[in-house]
From TrEMBL:
Protein name per the record: Peptidase M24 domain-containing protein
Location of the protein in the cell: Nucleus
Family matches, as Pfam families: Peptidase_M24
Gene Ontology molecular function, alphabetical: RNA binding
Domain Peptidase M24, residue spans: 21-223
Organism: Glycine max
PANTHER family reported for this sequence: PROLIFERATION-ASSOCIATED PROTEIN 2G4, PROTEASE FAMILY M24 METHIONYL AMINOPEPTIDASE, AMINOPEPTIDASE P
Amino acid sequence: MSDDEREEKELDLTSPEVVTKYKSAAEIVNRALQLVISECKPKAKIVDLCEKGDSYIREQTGSMYKNVKRKIERGVAFPTCVSVNNTVCHFSPLASDETVLEDGDIVKIDMACHIDGFIAAVAHTHVLQEGPVTGRAADALAAANTAAEVALRLVRPGRKNKDVTEAIQKIAAAYDCKIVEGVLSHQMKQFVIDGNKVVVSVSNPDTRVDDAEFEENEVYAIDIVASTGDGKPKLLDEKQTTIYKRAVDKSYHLKMKASRFIFSEISQKFPIMPFSARLA
């Protein structure tokens, strides 16, 4: 077997080594999620929660594959985000942000970890209150959870991406909720967190995706957000963008010395995966 053939085989889930890396990344990111959940308390600063999640992933992955011939990239595949109440997703503030959690908040946590580019992503919704969740908040939680369970069962060889889109909307409607528009579930490959095969949460003229069929040994991150509103995100507060990803298919010709320095730092520290501006 040539080196190219061996490299190609390593990308396939039929390789035990690849499966091991996925499992290891999943174990780490699930522990990181539990850590962040345990720290979600009234008056906790959101930026501190994000830092705890990212730091745990970096520490745990940093202790793996240290004595190998080929350097194994590993670490945070998507920064820890803590999005509260009507903030849809991807809130990972800068160090100067003073936003804190409050009693009764609905907290959406998401993050991802990778080992050698094989990515495990997790998300969870946590409510800051004692006792069971009731009312419309409970409807939204149940709609999202049930839709996710059904989606996981539909992502199977031979099924289509539109099967998932149709099913999750029907489930949300049963709880008198809406699936939030603009949320995409991507196929993931080695070092690719947003692959070409996509499951759109709500099909409309603004977010069309190509029809696709799921195939054996593919990996997907299923991302579902349910709302008691109309499911159409609105810009209520212009939060500064804090998560970026380098466009590896583009070349940059920067004139300013400061720009070249920043780009060099990003290229070295975050060559492919999304990153938080806190760390840049």
